[in-house]
Amino acid sequence: MNEQIRAREVRLVGPEGEQVGIVPVERALQLAADVDLDLVEVAPMARPPVCKLMDFGKFKYESALKAREARRNQQQTVIKEMKLRPKIDPHDYATKKGHVVRFLKAGDKVKVTIMFRGREQSRPELGFRLLRRLSEEISELGFVEASPKQDGRNMIMVLAPHRATKAAAVAAVAAGAKPPREPREGDGADEVTDEVPGEPAETTAE
Q: Which of 45, 54, 60, 147 sits at a 20 to 30 Å CA gap from 36?
């Protein structure tokens, strides 16, 4: 930048992006001084190097603001878990589906686990049927990212929010909206957990 530039001549770009042309570096420095701007190398590997007239302090400040805004809008991927029984009663199913809907609206993925006990293990079709029903009923908000599969005594399916659903959740967070209420005891959830990839799940309600 400025006097630190060692090239004899540079391809100069004006403050509005206009092409000035190839000029001696002394001339470029003089032009920068005339308009009270800095001469900044933007493509040092080019031959000759490309330099631009700019307010470097303002440029750094605006770059820092953009980076901070990007970090604020970035949302960590969280995986919620909802556990159901294959013979769940209608009221509990409706309650748990409501939790899944809230999680998807918040931009989170949901791992839905069907827990089989005893003789239920010989009826995997009950789990498939329940998971298919759930995926169809939340299809406006999310989609099946991982199809149902048997894992020991459990059957697991992963739901993910549609891109538009996740974008709306990010916008709500940026606007300061409150996140959806977590399920509480008595809401009908056997267990709801948060999972962050690479970290152990943590129980939030029982």
A: 45
pLDDT > 70 fraction of the chain, expressed in percent and rounded: 82
Q: What integer pLDDT is reported at residue 180 of this predicted model?
A: 53
Q: How far apart are CA 25 and CA 51, in angstroms?
A: 9
Three-state helix/strand/coil letters over the chain: CHHHCCCCEEEEECCCCCEEEEEEHHHHHHHHHHCCCEEEEEECCCCCCEEEEECHHHHHHHHHHHHHHHHHHCCCCCEEEEEECCCCCHHHHHHHHHHHHHHHHCCCEEEEEEECCHHHHHCHHHHHHHHHHHHHHCCCCEEEEEEEEEECCEEEEEEEECHHHHHHHHHHHHCCCCCCCCCCCCCCCCCEEEECCCCCCEEEEC
The half-sphere exposure of 171 on its side-chain side, counting CA atoms within 13 A, is: 7
Residue 141, by phi and psi: left (phi above 0), alpha (psi -120 to 50) or beta?
alpha
Residue 13 near residue 42, CB atoms below 8 Å: yes
